[in-house]
Write a structure and sequence with these properties.
Length: 280
Amino acid sequence: MLHYLFEPNKMTEDRQTQKPISSPGEWAEKRISDSLDYLFGSTGTSNDLIRPVYIVVTNEVFYNGNWDEENNPLFEKWGKNWLVNVYAEFFIQAERRGLILGEDYFIVDNENGLTDKANRAFVIEELKKFKEATAEEINLRRQSEGFPPDLKAEDILIIIGSQNHVATHPDNKYLSGPATMGDLNDLASDLIEVGPLLVTETSLKTEDGEERSEFISEITSLALRNKNVIGIAFWGNFLIEEGDRYGELGLFDRSRKWSPTLEYYLLQRALYLELLKQNP
């Protein structure tokens, strides 16, 4: 997984030149081109990685039932259409390289706060409009490049990432996630309207080993049961910054040369038992 290309609040300067972004459109186009070249080569024929690659194109676009406009030169240039222009440009550049969505790569929009029902409803409606508008924009660009302009909104497979940092203590303001596994199940079912769910940045801030093990087992089993959940990305498996506010999931032990921990084997056990239930 490549995480991530664009995020509001973190686009104040060009990381390569360390200067303010003066031409947002050209900057976005180059960032996409550089990323695709890095992953697939300029012709899309590089065989140095396992395909498909999951690419988080956008991160935390929406905030508290609205668009996050702060420190976003792309929003200043295109308004809410910045999302359409970025994904259309990504799709066209991938197509030029002969890359196929769903075979060579998947695109991910990673969001926070989707377990809040009001915010979730807002994001779903915005993504519906986004898919329609993006299909239209891609078809316009396809025509100019000699490709058939026959893309439909349902052809744009976008995976919705939902950050799932969970704290056992409700006063921890930095962490948010489903109060129960049922909330996560509801989220996955609601997102069927726009795309599959990838549970991202999954961690549990607790010192209780039994609680952490139970959490791993429950979330793994739930992800395998809900057909709209395509996977889980765990947070803090190998290395965590000192004082990191999200906690360490602890699948591998630093003090033992990164040997698997009990939690790792419990994860394997949860996967095995759930798959056995589904395929007796």
